[in-house]
């Protein structure tokens, strides 16, 4: 059974006491038996990276992968504060660049996927949302990502492209929190990624925004500097950027780099 490192676990990580949360993964030429790889990944990668970790496990018996999912900005903060991450996968290049400037990334990050925003509304669409401009109408409760979060930065670009400024009732630190408020009926609409709408299935209705192609987020991955599992981390990064990773990401709705 795979255990993900949540916020509570992350606080333990920052305190320097980490268990072996995760699933047992195997070894390839870059991995030795009994090793643990800790991967910090953007919240929007939860489903795909969980699947990729399972596949990496099948291909490499004997290694444990601990997955920590959160907003990219939160993950940057955790790594800066000393969380022992081996690999970081962000939902934009801006947050990855912060670690690169701090000397906390080994080598050059590789972009492995792209994503764009889409409106998500409850399945019955009670507010009758049909366009991006409808989200700015009086009485519409819309939830978005905070500006420092990749999906929030993308929203700012989308607002500029569409010529519409929203007045959200809430700004969240992870796109999964935005989606959660929509599916729980706490909002009339939310701005999430197309992949989030796909993963939500019948729980939400997705409404495309024509200008979304002017606010594309690129997803980079890199090995964290100082990792004791640098070779294994590089192997996982190659797995993500390789044929298996591309297939899983494409099936989930991500765009190619």
Automatic annotation (TrEMBL):
PROSITE patterns: PROKAR_LIPOPROTEIN. SUPFAM superfamilies: Periplasmic binding protein-like II (SSF53850). The keyword Manganese does not apply. InterPro entries: ModA, ModA/WtpA. Pfam families: SBP_bac_11. Keywords: Metal-binding, Signal. Residues 1-23 form the signal peptide. PANTHER family: MOLYBDATE-BINDING PERIPLASMIC PROTEIN, SULFATE-BINDING PROTEIN. NCBIfam families: modA. Belongs to the bacterial solute-binding protein ModA family. This is Molybdate ABC transporter substrate-binding protein. It comes from Cryobacterium breve. The lineage of its organism: Bacteria, Bacillati, Actinomycetota, Actinomycetes, Micrococcales.
């Amino acid at each position: 059974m795979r255990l993900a490192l949540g916020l509570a676990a992350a606080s333990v990580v920052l305190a320097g006491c980490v268990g072996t949360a995760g699933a047992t993964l195997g070894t390839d030429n870059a991995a030795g038996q009994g090793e643990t790889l800790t991967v910090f990944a953007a919240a929007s990668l939860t489903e795909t990276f969980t699947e990729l970790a399972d596949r990496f496990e099948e291909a490499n018996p004997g290694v444990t992968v601990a997955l920590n999912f959160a907003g990219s900005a939160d993950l940057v903060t955790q790594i800066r504060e000393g969380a022992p991450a081996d690999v970081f996968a962000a939902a934009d290049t801006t947050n990855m660049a912060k670690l690169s400037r701090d000397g906390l990334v080994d080598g050059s990050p590789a972009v492995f996927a792209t994503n764009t925003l889409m409106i998500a509304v409850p399945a019955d669409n009670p507010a009758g949302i049909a366009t991006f401009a409808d989200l700015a109408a009086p009485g519409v409760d819309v939830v978005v990502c905070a500006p420092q979060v990749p999906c929030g930065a993308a929203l700012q670009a989308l607002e500029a492209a569409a010529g519409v400024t929203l007045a959200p009732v809430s700004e969240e630190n992870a796109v999964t929190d935005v989606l959660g408020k929509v599916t729980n009926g706490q909002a009339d609409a939310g701005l999430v990624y197309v992949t989030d709408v796909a993963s939500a299935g019948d729980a939400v209705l997705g409404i495309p925004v024509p200008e979304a192609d002017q606010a594309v987020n690129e997803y980079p991955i890199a090995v964290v500097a100082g990792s004791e599992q640098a070779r294994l981390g590089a192997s996982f990064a190659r797995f993500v950027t390789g044929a298996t990773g591309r297939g899983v990401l494409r099936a989930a709705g991500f765009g190619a780099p």
